[in-house]
Amino acid sequence: MLYIINFKTYEKGTGINAIKLANIISDIRDRLKADIWAAPQFTDLNEIAKIIPTLAQHIDPISYGSHTGSILPQSIKESGAIGTLINHSEKKLSSNKIESCICLAKQLNLKTVCCAANIKEVIEISKFNPDYIAFEDPELIGTGKSISREKPELITKFVEVLKELNPDIIPLCGAGISDKEDVKAALELGTKGVLVASAVVKAENQRESLLNLIL
């Protein structure tokens, strides 16, 4: 089971707080032999990549050149990231840009975790052969109401569609995942991992909250 912790731009996932959380994740990874990755902000990527496996939160479909303010895929590779999120609900991309980002990431041997908000997006993104597709219902993100228990039929449909279209793509899910029961439900529905953010990053006790997720 893969756990991806998205630090977003939360205060408790920024700067020195991000480093503290990364060390908590590292300790739990080692003690429980759990597969946990982090997606911190770009400014923290280099330091956190020294501690735990790290994804960028986004890349832009560009190469070296005049692209002020854009995220260069080569830069996140050199910062130590093993991959990137693409098309998160808070950073949506057009279909053409998703395809370009996946292509560029693959050229750099970066893992691609593409987010999809509905089955239509799953069908479109699957054509580009990312490593993972994470199904996330935007209505449930940050609510504490998990997609795996609130809308299990959506996850079942997602897993079935993805298996039919491209069984090599690994199915993940996210939105409201908060505890072991949510994770267990996601696993039973056929996914191979979860994306989590506020349930861990914003928690008063981050260690306890993360431990409460690991099966």
Structure description:
With 215 residues, the chain is an alpha/beta fold. The protein has a single domain (2-211), classed as TIM Barrel (Alpha-Beta Barrel). The chain is built from 10 helices and 8 strands. It has helices at 16-32, 42-48, 73-78, 95-107, 119-126, 147-150, 152-165, 180-188, 198-201, 206-211, and strands at residues 2-6, 35-39, 55-56, 83-86, 111-116, 132-136, 170-174, 193-196. It has an 8-stranded parallel sheet with strand order 2-1-8-7-6-5-4-3. Helix 3 links the parallel strand 3 (55-56) and strand 4 (83-86). Helix 5 runs parallel beside helix 7. It is globular, with a radius of gyration of 16 Å.
Give a topology summary.
Blueprint: E1 2-6, H1 16-32, E2 35-39, H2 42-48, E3 55-56, H3 73-78, E4 83-86, H4 95-107, E5 111-116, H5 119-126, E6 132-136, H6 147-150, H7 152-165, E7 170-174, H8 180-188, E8 193-196, H9 198-201, H10 206-211
Parallel strand pairs: 1-2, 1-8, 3-4, 4-5, 5-6, 6-7, 7-8
Rg, rounded, reads: 16 Å
CATH C-level category = Alpha Beta
Q: Estimate nothing, just give the exact number of structural domains.
A: 1
The average pLDDT score comes to 95
Key features of this structure:
41% helix; 17% strand; 215 residues; TIM Barrel; 8 strands; alpha/beta; eight-stranded parallel β-sheet; globular; single chain
Short description:
Helices cover 41% and strands 17% of the residues. With 215 residues, the protein is of the alpha/beta class.
